[in-house]
Amino acid sequence: MKDFRFKIPQNIEFGMGSLKKLPEILKENESEHVFLISDRGLEKIGVVGKIQDIIEEGGIRYTSYLDVIPNPTTDIVNEAAALYKECGATSIVALGGGSSMDVAKAVGVLANYGGSITDYEGNHKVPGPIVPMIAIPTTAGTGSEVTASAVITDETRNYKLSVFSYEILPKYAVLDPELIMTAPASIAAACGVDALIHAIEAYLSVNASPFSDAMAEKAMELIGGNLRQFVANRKNEEAASAMMAGSNFAGISFAWARLGNVHAMSHPVSAYFHVPHGVANSILLPTVLAYNALADNGRYEVIYNYIRQGNEVLNGFKPEMLVEEIKKLNADLGIPKSLSEAGVKEELIPAMAEDAMKSGNIPANPRQTNVKDIMELYRKAL
């Protein structure tokens, strides 16, 4: 067994109605003025107001920034960071999916260390702890509440830059399954498959360890056994709880094992064509799994058994069975079959491939990959 390391530096509250503990958490952190980062969609359906009321009822002041968009940009980060400094807040609450949490992490960096978020692009360039942050996910998919990365779009380069540092891990996470029970079916599907991919890629990563494997396998069990039921009926409390916990465990897994070609390739797809992150990942997964099958050492069968329907006894497993099972899952959930269906154009494949190769996830992929391989994978997924 090779050497590995991990730590569990966060405080995580899980359970139906656990949002009510937010004032207690803020007071424990001696926060008298909190900066709430979220988006207009959650404001429109009343989720932001619910959090604001809970904060206010706890006797704590707040300032809100609600202009986060999918695939948030450096301009969004700069705008939010300026408001944070101006209002005098001492902590951050990030409410939403990965976009809100990515912005919150970036604001936390700039609030303490200044400059531009591009100054911290890459691995381990954040010099120390960021502003105390409480993450409240409203989707079961990103795992951002327990991951050490923030992904921000630099529009000047049409590029999704990544800041990776364990210093940007949120200090707290509040996981209330009630928050994901109002999601539209399409969002629940794309985010759910994204969470499953986090676990799959971490499990197949060359950096996988017994710790990350334990998290990934439990995540696959919970998500694989509940994703279809949750998309079918988001009011299903058991399925919602399983998805929320599974997404969290998948996030912990890839925080320590990294991901692979699926995520490396999906970021340029989102940057150039504005395809939602979860949708891009879901489309790419079967193609990348087929490519990585050459490197399989028995783990494909483990994954297959977590996600397949039925309990029939297998008479010999082949890696292509997993690929077909993923295709069937995507079809059941209404995920587009190809990148072309999502609006991706072939002429930008060379540029996307160059950007994908800059990702820190490429070296973690189980099969070695060069830029020509990535271009061919894009063409197959197209």
What does this structure look like?
It is a single chain. With 382 residues, the chain is an alpha/beta fold. Helix content is 49%, strand content 11%. It is globular and about 60 Å long. It starts with 10 loop residues before the first strand and ends with a helix. The relative contact order is 0.11. Residues 189-382 form the Fe-containing alcohol dehydrogenase-like C-terminal domain. Belongs to the iron-containing alcohol dehydrogenase family.
Structural category is alpha/beta
Oligomer: single chain
Order of helices and strands: EHEHHEHEHEEEEEHHHHHHHHHH
CATH topology (fold) name of the largest domain: Dehydroquinate synthase-like, alpha domain
Descriptive keywords:
single chain, 382 residues, alpha/beta, Rossmann fold, Dehydroquinate synthase-like, alpha domain, 2 domains, three-stranded mixed beta sheet, 15 helices, 9 strands, 11% strand, globular, metal ion binding, alcohol dehydrogenase (NAD+) activity
Brief summary of the model shown:
By secondary structure, this protein is of the alpha/beta class. It has 15 helices and 9 strands.
Write the layout of secondary structure elements.
Layout: E1 11-14, H1 22-28, E2 33-37, H2 40-44, H3 47-57, E3 61-65, H4 74-87, E4 91-96, H5 98-113, E5 122-123, E6 133-137, E7 149-154, E8 159-164, E9 172-175, H6 185-204, H7 210-224, H8 227-232, H9 237-257, H10 261-273, H11 277-292, H12 299-307, H13 319-333, H14 349-356, H15 371-381
Parallel strand pairs: 1-9, 2-3, 2-4, 4-6, 5-8, 6-9
Antiparallel strand pairs: 7-8
Helix pairs in contact: 4-5, 6-7, 6-9, 6-11, 7-9, 10-11, 10-14, 11-13, 11-15, 12-13, 14-15
